[in-house]
Amino acid sequence: MIWFWLAVIVLLPTFGLVVFRGAPYVPTRKMYVKQALAELYPISGRDVLVDIGSGDGVVLREASKRGARAIGYEINPILVLISRLLSRKDKNVEVRLADFWLSSLPDDVSVVYVFAVSRDINKIRKMMQNEANRLNREFHLITYGSAFNDLKSIKNVGAYNLYSFKSLHADKAQV
Ligand SMILES: C[S@@+](CC[C@H](N)C(=O)[O-])C[C@H]1O[C@@H](n2cnc3c(N)ncnc32)[C@H](O)[C@@H]1O
Predict the structure, then answer these.
(1) At 99, which CATH number?
(2) Does residue 77 form part of some domain?
(3) Which percentage of the chain shows pLDDT scores above 90?
(4) Ligand 1 contact via 57 beta carbon (within 6 Å)
């Protein structure tokens, strides 16, 4: 019984409080990730993928299998530990304990992956545009789940959409 209550005390705040900062932990099914990284955005060794809210790291490992470098930002320390453990033999995978709203994308990012919930979708768009402006170049965004209402995707596969964000230069943010 003590283990049950210990688990409740540790796991409930760790997993529950995340809903105030983003999507709760629901992993993308591996078959869908494979489809996205083949049909939607054929990823390669030239890519640097960033998963904002990387969960157990399934997207990172699938990207790495195709030769890409893969970086995950994850707010839940338990999931950071699990994903580091599951990816321990994988030199292309890095998992950072971080709130992605408070983080910058790495300079060499080429594609960002997000499991998006409708509440956050406009904020994500604004963040991506600001990052494209800051980096002063283009990168792609893969959304799984919610899509942008007023931004046309380049391609769509199932629940996935692919977008491109280009620099609008300095202070001319799109949103
Ligand atoms: C729906 S899950 C998706 C996990 C993984 N990307 C996948 O597709 O399998 C969302 C993840 O984002 C994490 N998360 C939510 N808000 C976050 C934030 N502000 N910063 C970093 N991670 C966050 C959650 O802890 C959770 O693991």
Answers:
(1) 3.40.50.150
(2) yes
(3) 82
(4) no
